[in-house]
Task: structure prediction
Amino acid sequence: EAEVAQSPRYKITEKSQAVAFWCDPISGHATLYWYRQILGQGPELLVQFQDESVVDDSQLPKDRFSAERLKGVDSTLKIQPAELGDSAMYLCASSFSGPGVDGYTFGSGTRLTVV
Amino acid sequence: AQSVSQHNHHVILSEAASLELGCNYSYGGTVNLFWYVQYPGQHLQLLLKYFSGDPLVKGIKGFEAEFIKSKFSFNLRKPSVQWSDTAEYFCAVITTGRRALTFGSGTRLQVQP
Result:
């Protein structure tokens, strides 16, 4: 079964440092999503890509977060500088034609701890 | 804006008990509805989905959900739970004009043997 790959699996960083997460969606999936899941809460959308274009980044804290998907395949989410409140699970998901048809396939996530 | 409410935050059941997890959404138009499950240490997996047609949807592992439009609800049910159903369950919705799922806060289910 095809999977969405994410790395690293775990990341511990100090406050004010930069951190980056990587996601490789299922081959052929044009739509890619980054979600943040704080412990005890549901996933919240940060940014959505259609191919290499950003479709929705209205919930992305743009003063410190950035995301790119330069060739429309894999994607990187960056935080600089990291803050204590950024500690969460960062989930990547992809879909072939949008969630209204097949839902998403999620990766295993990157658990970020900011100390 | 679309939103999803899951009022049961933590449910504890004994094996063989029946399960019903509540999910309510706020949107008056056409919706697509989903239930996802997250087993301990694993990624989110699709349990079932509703797009149109029969409001009673059957998913994997014996789960089903019923879409009741008049109540804006999409409750998840299973007649007899097993210890292996211990997991966190998330309801999600997407509405006309939106491009991404909105998730509820989740319900943690603990099944005791």
In short: The first strand of chain B starts at residue 3 and ends at 5.
